[in-house]
Design brief:
single chain, about 270 residues, alpha+beta, Jelly Rolls, Arc Repressor Mutant, subunit A, 8 strands, about 25% strand, globular
């Protein structure tokens, strides 16, 4: 069994607001069996299984089995035991605090097809935790909050008939993700949705709690944080993501995360 952990206490991000406390990357063999103490802090745990199977014993519920592609979000103080049940149980473990999960049911697994971007995001958050600091915490929490919002959207698709306005917003967010490197205006997204700019902003704000511009900016800056974390320079990242200059990326980055990426020195360095 291998288990890697990084942790810190961080500031909450915008949108679906989550403060990421800790990440574990676990490969559990047949001997893996964790029996937990009776008292634990009241935060949330997200377990994202990539392969194998595991079992989770949650207070007041039958044993829950999780398999490849499953995600479960559990109230930490109710999780009594978890163990490997078949194959090598590989999973990512996130400990976090969130103000609102927008109706997502706790303690029930659901399947979310993993994507390359998601797995890269996990690794980037893990790498950020390896170098703890105020900026690293904000960046990782922001990235995790974006992933959490995607999980919530997937859960809604599986558990409730889509509301027409939700479909509009989901499609708009998909278009935003497709245009991270070729930025377009909010008016462009409104036109594709068949709405006036004013109505589009109202619908988007109602569903997500963010303005469309704020959400789009956050997606682009989260991608910038990911690429900077991979070692790209600020100049290269600004060019790849369509910012007019490294200065404008640095200014937007500082507005979101509280500090600017370094415009000098090693690629991807953060200004202290």
């Amino acid at each position: 069994m291998t288990r890697e952990r990084c942790s810190w206490t961080s500031a909450a991000a915008v949108g679906v607001s989550a403060s990421l406390r800790c990440i574990w990357a676990v490969a559990a063999d047949k001997s893996y069996n964790v029996i937990r103490p009776s008292k634990h802090p009241p935060f949330l745990v997200a377990a994202r299984t990539t392969s194998g199977e595991g079992e989770m014993m949650i207070e007041g519920l039958p044993t829950v089995t999780v398999a490849g592609g499953d995600l479960i979000i559990v109230q930490n103080h109710r999780l009594m035991q978890y163990r490997r049940s078949r194959g090598v149980w590989r999973f990512w473990w996130f400990e976090f605090v969130a103000d609102d999960l927008l109706g997502l049911a706790l303690n029930e697994p659901f399947n979310v097809k993993p994507t390359k971007d998601e797995l890269q995001g996990f690794q980037t958050c893990f790498n950020l935790l390896s170098n703890p600091g105020p900026l690293s915490a904000a960046m990782a929490s922001s990235m995790f909050s974006t992933m959490l919002q995607g999980w919530i959207m997937r859960w809604r698709e599986l558990h409730s008939p889509p509301h027409p306005q939700q479909l509009i917003v989901d499609q708009a967010i998909s278009r935003m993700r497709a245009n991270l490197e070729n930025p377009v205006s909010v008016e462009h997204f409104a036109q594709q949705a068949g709405l006036s700019s004013r109505r589009f902003r109202q619908v988007f704000q109602q569903i997500t709690g963010n303005s469309p511009k704020r959400h789009y900016d956050l997606l682009r800056l989260t991608m910038a944080a990911h690429r900077l974390g991979q070692g790209r320079s600020v100049t290269q990242t600004s060019q790849e993501l369509g910012y007019s200059s490294p200065y404008h990326l640095s200014k937007a980055f500082k507005g979101c995360f509280g500090k600017a990426p370094s415009l000098q020195g090693e690629a991807g360095a953060i200004a202290r």
